[in-house]
Structures are given as C-alpha cells and as structure tokens.
Amino acid sequence: MVMVTNEEVLRYLNALDFPIDKEELVRQVERQGAPQNVLKALRALPPLDYSNKNEVVRSAAIALAPEVSPPERAERARYRHHQQVAQHLREP
After folding, report:
1. What is the SS3 assignment for 34?
2. In whole angstroms, what is the distance from residue 20 CA to residue 14 CA?
3. Nearest-CA neighbor of 38 among 56, 19, 54, 55?
4. Buried-most residue among 7, 12, 49, 69 (CB within 10 A)?
5. Could you tell me the CA-to-CA distances from 41 to 53, 80, 81 in Å, in that order?
6. Is residue 14 within 8 Å of 57, Cβ to Cβ?
7. pLDDT tens digits for 26-57?
C-alpha cells in the first residue's frame, strides 16, 4: 500500500473536471506538481472512468489512518464491537 493520505490525494483532485478517465486524471495531477507518493497511488487505480473525487479516493491505494501504528490496528481488530466499522473510522 502506498503511504499517502486521503487529504494528500484530494488536494490534487479539487481542480479536476469529472467525469475523467484514469490516464487523464494522472496526467492532470502530474501537471499540478503532485509528489511521487500521490502519483504512485493514482497510477495504481483501476483503468476506469471516475465520476467524482470520492470514487478516486475509494479506489486509490491509500493508507487509511496512517497515524495508527500496526500494533494499535491489531489490538483494535481483536475487539468484536468494531467489526462492522471501517478501520479509519474506528475510535481508539
């Protein structure tokens, strides 16, 4: 998984006109001067047409909740009451 956050990716998607295909999306974000970690995440997207920036973020290889360490994630995963909540939305 690429170490980039949703916020980093969204910063470069705000100026795009949707719908947009993957190749054009990567070209435009690259022209904006996006860092390599953002470009790498976007290059890993499935080759589809994206209707909005939320579809892009959901499909991109993004590290959700990178501020949570792997041991913390493992500990949280052991608690059954969190099983239906997305990892990045879980409370400590």
Report:
1. coil
2. 13
3. 56
4. 12
5. 14, 31, 31
6. no
7. 999 999 999 999 999 899 899 999 999 988 98
